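Table S7 (text form). Paired inputs.
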Amino acid sequence: MVKPFFVVLPLVLLVSRSAQPTSPRITRFQLLDLLAPGVSLYESIQKLRTSKGDSTALAELAKYFRTRKSPGWPPTERHPKCPDDAIADSAKKGTHTAIGLWHHSGIDSMNWHHDPTGEGGIPKNPEWIYGLNRHYWWAGLACYSKYRGDTSAARTLIQEFESWKFQNPPPIGRANYRGSAWRTFEAGIRMHESWPKAFENIRISPILHDTTMLDMVALMLDHASYIENFKTDHNWLAMEMDGLHAVGSYFPEFATSTHWRKIAIHTIDSAMSYQILPDGVQEELSPSYHALTLKCIRSIIIRSRETQNSNEIPQRLLKTLERGYDVFPAIWLPNGKSPRLNDSHEFSIQEVLGQGLQLFPNHPDWRWIYSNGKEGNEPTFKNKLFSWAGWCIFRTSWQQDANVLIFDRGPTGKGHHHQDKLSISAWSFGRQILFDDGGGPYEDSPFRSFAKSTAAHSTFLVDNLGQNRAPEAPSRSDSTGWNIGKASASAIGIYEDEWGSKKKRLARHERSVEFFPDHWVVTDRIQSQDGNPHTATGLWQILSTNLSCDSIQCQTTDSGQSNLAIVPLCKPLVNITSGQTTPYVSGWYIGLEKKIPATTLAYNYLSGKQINATTILVPIHEGEISPVIGIRRGKTSTIINLRGGSHWEIKSSNCVKNEN
């Protein structure tokens, strides 16, 4: 017989406890008082308390949690053996990972507040501590314990739980400060993701002592109380309510469980009535956080079904979720992924639509994308305006070799915003060439500052200064300038807020985009707002370091791939940077996991009170070169001469005007 495992905590852990005031933790014996009256468990436990005392009753409660068959969530493992889990394997050796960084944290001397970032040339990143305190690998350890009989995995999980409990008592107030293990975001993740999954499999381990198991239960109730009292807003609220609902669903034996479920559902339903905008986009205007928010709502709905509580879900929440999922077809890109707008990483649109179809199967366009065109129907639209979010999306087709352009003319969004109004991302025959990198990791570095700035986006600087907008949620619909014609589609956007750190209103920037199947016309007008002349710099962020420029145009020259030509109709001064770090960062793709040298093409226009700059973007097939061979300017239009004798005629104005 394997003996229950006890943990002796080293004294060194005392120094790592947070200075945040803490609240009394629910004790094991208090669990007896928190059971819901009127259920058989309550009655049997109370009889034991009366006849044999609390200790015997507590032992019976532990036996109950070891052997219970309900509530049916989280779903039990469907594998006779657990899949290999490299993160769990490393944890058994005292090595942990977060944000792509591996660090030997130890087991006996585990410090949940030690941050190895900022050492050895690694930029400081608060996400390490947050990621570490999400405990994602605990589910893997518990799975190893149950299905592989791995006592080392069980022992590691028990030790880590005891050390975490010791170092991180529940705080009195909201602990959403840097370096906290009790941010409400992580509290939500632990409760809907790592802890219930770990508990479900570790609870039968013979080396898990009753006291530790019941402490796990008590601390999950502590989490629920903390989340209810200190919930926040935006995507954090979705994560928090998913966690609160999970505890209420996983522990129906306690009197507060129904209350927690109903609070979670009411709160998320009320919040989504304003967070999910009328055009379906979540108010932070980030595809990633849009998807995360929907994932949490979907989790609550699925969990309600699995625990026979579907009647608690209001129809309005279902309709809101469905409207949110209906955003994904429009932002589907030729590689099957999502665009990176504001703080956002790339994810599979097919995967999230597959999840949506489980709840809302009557969407043939979702099914067409999910099945790679094998089922359902191709979407009936190509171009799409999200009139609240301000995303203008143009495409030639729904095939993997489509030309696609995204014009972001909307507000910042509520949180996770970039200074990028009027920026453009573009795909030439399925290959992204003009990019928005999504901001990269949340590290303290010049790269992170650059990635959020105007200088990292395909738009304009004025007097070498970027935009400076405060974060705001969209407050109105704007369809101005959006037009779908027979030969082209077009949109117009305006920036007239502050520039630079001093927040000066220097100039008004108006950009129009006209999307033809074989070329795209981008017209920019910079108009002085303070009566003074200003310089203007048009930036193009190019996902390539192979760029060739002549007196007519610049074009990427990547062999074996499609390319893009960038043709300015005015004659700017050209500056090209690639992989530059000094005197300032420029020419980088700041990915979530790695930084890749790219190219920033800067077209610098002479100082004036009004600057007009028209640029033609030309997608180029693999193995071909730009069709543009000459430019002939007239008084009211410009002729673009093409190979083969044809031409495009572009309406254009004088490049620089200094008159009042």
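Next pair, protein 2 of 2.
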Amino acid sequence: MSVSNPSYRVRVGGWLKNRFSTDQRFLFLSMICGAICGVVAVSFHLCIEYAFHRTMVFADYLKDHSLVFLFPLVPALGGLIVGLASISFAKGSTGGGVPQIKVAYYQRFGVMPFFQGFWRYILCVISMGTGASLGREAPSMHICATVASSIGQWLGLAKKQIHLLVPIGMAAGLAGAFNTPIAAITYVFEELFEGSAKRGFGTLLIAVVIAAVVERGILGTEPMFQLSIRQFSSEPWMFICVPLGIFAGLIGHAFVIGMLKTRYFFRYKSKIPQWIRPVIGGFGIGILGICVYIGFGTHGVLSTGHLTLGAVLQEKYVWYVLLILLIGKFFGSILCYGTDCCGGIFAPSLFIGGVLGALLGNGIVPFCADSENVVSGCALLGMGALFAAVIRCPITSILIIFEMTRSYSIILPLMVGNMLAYFIACKLSPVSLDDRSLIQDGVSLKTHFAYQGSKEWQNLPVSTIATYEPVTLIETMLPVNAVLSVKEMPHHSYPIVNEHGDLRGIVLHRELVDWSKDLIQKALFEYVREQKVVVVYPNDSIRSVAMKMVSNEVEQVPVVGDISSSKLIGLVTLHDIARQQNAVEESV
């Protein structure tokens, strides 16, 4: 975040430092972040709703003038704007945003560029406002986390404190988007912290409560979804939570796999340019959405679908319309996610789950002595179950349904269905969607020293500091040719590998130069045939690798796949270890 007047920032920081303790300053800063993030989240919500409202007004205009076939061009245009922005001035601002938060939290001490959040705000309004079948909640968290991080950077805080501001902004963003402060806290703990020390809980709580107060002050105190009845009595129909949990687990797994495979295809298999991908997603969802809108009078397949989901909970749709909505939202959200449209998967998960539950509810109504509110009750159970299966935050999946509807009486069947769906989804695919998307992009989080704390960095895997693209030499090369090949990029040493990337040896630069002077040139593998190379493995601790290097009197060691594999992964030097130690000391 750029600062036009650094002296003013220094004066503000000095004034706070002279009058308040560290804890008091951070508490005050958390309150400020909560208030600002609440305003940002609410404005984000209102902008998307207004943009989508204008889009549907335009759709009605096209329908009245027999030009409805042109409607898919609207979300396609939104996709074009997103695509062009993503390759120019708004790189890293597409998608949902939660994976980007985790990367910043684990690998950059929470330092997030302000304009990445700013452009995500703009592009998400354009994307979802023109009909992209995704949700605003994950982008809201990313935007607010960026705001909190930028405030910390503007004030010149230490990276340890900026690191703590990211979950505060993230939770405040979710509280402001969903009006669910308690669920916002549990989500951050389940999704971001994942078992690390639960620091900052008090300040996080303050931030989300203030954000929720701002949200309710602007939008009112009513819950997101209105039910015609507040309480459900215990009835036999609630046993539907068992088959519903099973269905939700299976469908949630299919939903995640569909999104991942579509994303992988467009990003890494197809030759479609990056800026074209959101256009394809926008055009596809435009065709799907307008067909459902014309045929069945509902626009739930488009954008967030919150209004349509509210109508589902009011039991306003017959079973075949619910089926169409389920299919349309399922494939529409997969397409939008896979083509890098802007938005998250919270809203689609809740929508699909609610419609699934309502469908099953319609199926059991004829067998219920008292069928009142059975469909809406089943829809609530479905929302929680599919959320648990897709988002993989089971506690949050229970609390978020309660806070959005304030219906507490079905908490027990909700817990049963959610846990069942969660365990089925985890059994079928142990890694969550956000983490698998990062894995697709070659990003690893849990190996970074920030994950366990700066004091424990020596116990972390050596893979966190290895160089993954070392300069290598092919074993069949002659020394004189090898010297020429590394002339422009000389290093201390070079791993020697075969054509499959398997390690054959390692040669120092000075040794390579000496070999190149031999009158009779031999292939490199002849020189290292009897060499015993000291190797390490990715999960070896940094401490043990350093001790091995010292005891063997070597300055670098190759990192290979495992004991049974000689596949070269990277290279670690004593300089890497020293540099890592200095980086930790300077950054905290």
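The first strand starts at residue 473 and ends at 474.
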